[in-house]
Amino acid sequence: MSTRPEAVPARAGQPQPLPESADVYRTLLESTRAIPWKIDWASMRFAYIGPQIETLLGWSQDSWQTVDDWVSRMHPEDRDAVVGFCVSQSQAGVDHEADYRALTRDGGYVWIRDVVHVVRDASGEVDSLVGFMFDISERKQAEEERMRLHRELEQLSLTDGLTGIANRRMFDQRLETEWSASRRSGSPLSLVVLDLDHFKQFNDAHGHVAGDDCLRRVAALLRGVAQRPRDVVARFGGEEFILLLPDTDAAAALALARQCMERLAALGIPHGAPEAGPVVTASLGVGTATVASTGEASDFVAAVDARLYAAKRGGRNRIEVLAD
């Protein structure tokens, strides 16, 4: 009677162990779209890189000799950050991944994701790095398109659809930012609030198409008055506009308000309603604040807006200034 154990047949569907052949593993690695590679840590030389690299980037397999070849074929804008990150993570023995643009032989760039595994020797020291390069260009293009659309939607959400200037939401955001900046620096912050006189009657007399055109022309006029990078020209609602003027003292704010009136008069937009004069005019409120720690931006806006309505009560086509 034999004492030798009988071989147990594998059950259907049970995974079989791979034969221990380097050729099998190489075939598996080189049949994927991912590009395998290995770098010897001591010499910083490529021990291996898959032949797929030539299909992807155009550089021949044997041209990848050292890490310098990897570094030199990276986009200059990505190079310092990616190399620094990968070196520090490798030195610490931490597996990691990095995205960067790799130079193709014909001068283009391909987005790569490098997934890196740190191999240690018996003493725990770093022996080598092994990993895979993945072409993620399509994914990056999709991400960039999503970001572009997001930026466009964000911009639309902050822009008045009729006039193209900032809307109330944008004004409120910038007001909070500039209010905080003024509080820190002690610099003055000014507002000019402008409302077109008898605008309902203008629409009644000329129609809403002409009314919309009038609002667009006034918005363009105001952009020409307040044109520093931090200035904000916003449609505050209806026929009311507001100028947010950082680092602007009371005298300069009043001068800008007068420019608004002069340029509006120069436009000469016919009005003709019985209650109004021959051309479209506006009433303005002006105020300047040196922000205190206890002040609220909304209170300042309300105070300047009140001066606008004082100008309305005082006869229109005039400026009222908020007292210090």
From TrEMBL:
It catalyses: 2 GTP = 3',3'-c-di-GMP + 2 diphosphate. This is diguanylate cyclase. It comes from Pseudoxanthomonas kaohsiungensis. Residues 187-324 form the GGDEF domain. The lineage of its organism: Bacteria, Pseudomonadati, Pseudomonadota, Gammaproteobacteria, Lysobacterales. Residues 96-148 form the PAC domain. SUPFAM superfamilies: Nucleotide cyclase (SSF55073), PYP-like sensor domain (PAS domain) (SSF55785). PROSITE patterns: GGDEF, PAC, PAS. Residues 21-82 form the PAS domain. Its EC number is 2.7.7.65. InterPro entries: Diguanylate_Cyclase, GGDEF_dom, Nucleotide_cyclase, PAC, PAS, PAS-assoc_C, PAS-like_dom_sf, PAS_fold_3. Coiled coil: none annotated.
